[in-house]
Specification:
Blueprint: E1 3-6, E2 8-11, E3 14-21, H1 39-65, H2 72-85, H3 90-100, H4 104-120, H5 125-128, H6 131-146, H7 154-157, E4 162-166, H8 171-177, E5 184-187, H9 195-202, E6 207-209, H10 214-217, E7 223-227, E8 232-235, H11 239-259, E9 276-281, H12 287-293, E10 298-302, H13 316-329, E11 334-338, H14 365-370, H15 372-385, E12 390-395, H16 401-420, E13 430-435, H17 438-442, H18 444-450, E14 453-456, H19 458-466, H20 484-499, E15 504-506, H21 514-522, E16 527-530, H22 535-543, H23 547-559, H24 563-573
Parallel strand pairs: 3-4, 4-5, 5-6, 9-10, 9-16, 10-11, 11-12, 12-13, 13-14, 14-15
Antiparallel strand pairs: 1-8, 2-6, 3-7, 7-8
Bound molecules: phosphoenolpyruvate and magnesium ion.
Phosphoenolpyruvate (PEP) binds near residues 198, 300, 302, 341 and 508.
Length: about 575
């Protein structure tokens, strides 16, 4: 049966292929048999997932003990640990893998059914109600198993046109899929500027989030058309629809190829203003895409991705190698390394946050200052890499003067440690701050006095100004980059920085969205950093723009306070591009 689903397109383009359902959270796991010689490995995979979950629970218990979480939580944790240790789940699952050769996820969900039936027979109504907790524990183990791919790695089950369909994916999950050859991503949950969407976008394949029931409605191997530009999925299309989309796909491909012609052209407006177009990356491997895009620097290296999907922390040498690789490959072009922005939706394994509002909690620089050893290790690694290129340090989520001073003191301390160790680094390394909290935008003078450059993180600036969780699709309609308050704040930061001659860029998603290019140019922005796939489209806009025409309109937009008026002025501004 053919049907259509509508979601929110987060990465443009058209993909045509076959559905592959990601399993973990929904308990709809893959079923397959393993060869006998893989039994030990499969059991080890199961055991390590149990160990991960146990560590998570222990971290949560510690949080309760330290007073960071409500005490009622403790009883609930004890129960979950008890379930985790129940032999029906652990021992019996191992036996089942050994004797029936089914994969670990399959065995575990079968044993979960056995345990649920046992709960069903319990007389005590309270305990009977605990069935939901059993399911939650098993979900956690299954999720942990995603970090320990099985004997049959996902990629080998896939054909060249596989489209991943998931209920939800964390940024860490998507990172894992970087190495797989999916042609598109679909999720039930998520929103435009969630980190999951950002990573999906960096993969440069069509992606749609907030599809609500896609994971339930789409079956494994269904034929799908994914229109990432319009946020539409067509399931099992007929021949005519398929032909139409194949045609559109080849037109898009042609346009993409045409854009390649401007790859080496300088990004200059018609009136001769030169603009820097930089790339956002997550890992050193992304440099290949950066080179393809013609970016002339890295405006945002989200270093926290080096910390995800692993049980340990990356040490100084490992981080140094990653940063050095990027610096060397960029041949003295700017490489802006953001210190780890962990917390909120990007957590170290086993330290998933229990805070009620993690985005307002111990995240980014707050976590760095709370974990000085971890911060010091990273600062040493970045400083060491500064010898190999034009490396800069960018600090996320600064909100007040004390944090700036403490951060600068940490950097000075790391520099002194390297001097003592007789290790070379760039003594004049530039240190910048992200402007992504309204308080920072509103007390800019102090930021400009103490820092060498600014980078506006519009993704968080919108979230924190409008009080809209950027990963919650139920409030995605309120996440409005055109809100007059946002436009005013962005304009205020750009214009104040320009007046003070402090370099300023935007590295949030707004910089890669072509409908904002002219507005930002008109407000005086001359440095944009975005995911590489979008760079040539933005450059194309720049090449067709004339600042004297744009500036008066941009000023009018900032002064407008009615959404209709803003929309009409934006249409006029973007007319003809
Ligand atoms: C931002 O907030 O705009 C930003 C670039 O940082 P991140 O998306 O990683 O929070
Ligand atoms: Mg941010």
């Amino acid at each position: 049966m053919s049907f259509i689903l509508q979601g929110s397109g987060v990465s443009e383009g058209i993909a045509i292929g076959h559905a592959h359902l990601a399993a973990p959270a929904a308990l709809e796991v893959m079923h397959y048999l393993i060869p006998k010689h893989q039994v030990d490995k499969e059991i080890a995979r199961l055991d390590s997932a149990f160990a991960v979950v146990r560590k998570e629970f222990e971290a949560l218990q510690k949080a309760v003990a330290d007073g960071h979480a409500r005490a009622e939580f403790s009883a609930f944790l004890d129960l979950h640990l008890m379930i985790l240790d129940d032999p029906t789940l652990s021992d019996a699952t191992r036996n089942m893998i050994t004797h029936t050769l089914c994969n670990a996820e399959w065995a575990l969900t079968q044993q979960m059914q056995v345990l649920l039936e046992q709960f069903e027979e319990i007389e005590d109504a309270y305990l009977r109600e605990r069935k939901a907790d059993v399911v939650q524990v098993v979900e956690r183990v299954l999720k942990a198993m995603l970090g320990h791919p099985g004997y049959l790695p996902v990629a080998s089950r896939l054909t060249g046109d596989s489209i991943l369909v998931a209920h939800d994916l964390s940024p860490a999950d998507v990172m894992q899929y970087k190495q797989h050859q999916f042609t598109a991503f679909l999720t039930d949950l998520g929103s435009q500027t969630s980190h999951t969407a950002i990573v999906a976008r960096s993969l440069n394949i069509p992606s749609i989030v907030a599809l609500h029931h896609a994971h339930q409605l789409i079956l494994e191997n269904d034929c799908l058309i994914v229109d990432g530009t319009n946020g539409i999925v067509i399931v099992n299309p007929d021949k005519y629809v398929l032909d139409e989309y194949r045609l559109r796909q080849s037109q898009l491909e042609l346009e993409r190829k045409k854009l390649q012609r401007i790859k080496t052209v300088a990004a200059m407006t018609l009136d001769g203003t030169l603009v820097d177009l930089y790339a956002n990356i997550e890992l050193p491997e992304d440099i290949a895409q950066v080179k393809d895009s013609g970016a002339t620097g890295i405006g945002l290296f989200r270093s926290e991705f080096l910390f995800l999907n692993r049980d340990d922390l990356p040490g100084e040498d490992e981080q140094f190698e990653a940063y050095r690789t990027v610096a060397v490959k960029m041949h003295k072009q700017p490489v802006t390394i953001r210190t780890f922005d962990l917390g909120a939706d990007k957590n170290l394994k086993g330290s998933e946050q229990v805070a009620a509002n993690p985005a307002l909690g111990l995240r980014a620089i707050r976590l760095s200052l709370a974990e000085p050893k971890m911060f010091h290790t990273q600062l040493r690694a970045i400083l060491r890499a500064s010898k190999y290129g034009d490396v800069r340090i960018l600090v996320p989520m600064l909100s007040n003067i004390a944090e700036i001073d403490q951060t600068l003191a940490h950097i000075e301390y790391a520099k002194q440690a390297l001097r003592d160790d007789k290790i070379d680094f760039d003594e004049h390394i530039k240190v910048g701050g992200m402007i992504e909290i309204p308080a920072a935008a509103l007390s800019l003078d102090i930021f400009m006095r103490k820092l060498d450059f600014l980078s506006i993180g519009t993704n968080d600036l919108i979230q924190y100004t409008l009080a809209v969780d950027r990963i919650d699709d139920t409030v995605a309609h309120l996440y409005d980059p055109f809100h007059p308050a946002i436009l005013w704040l962005v304009s205020h930061v750009i214009q104040s920085a320009n007046r003070a001659k402090v370099p300023v860029s935007i590295c949030g998603e707004m910089a890669g969205d072509k409908q904002f290019t002219r507005l930002l140019l008109g407000l005086g922005l001359q440095q944009f950093s975005m995911y590489p796939a979008q760079l040539l489209t933005v450059k194309n806009q720049i090449l067709k723009s004339n600042l004297p025409d744009i500036i008066p309109l941009a000023q009018k937009i900032i002064k407008a306070d009615q959404p209709e008026k803003i929309a009409a002025l934006m249409a006029k501004l973007n007319d003809g591009v």
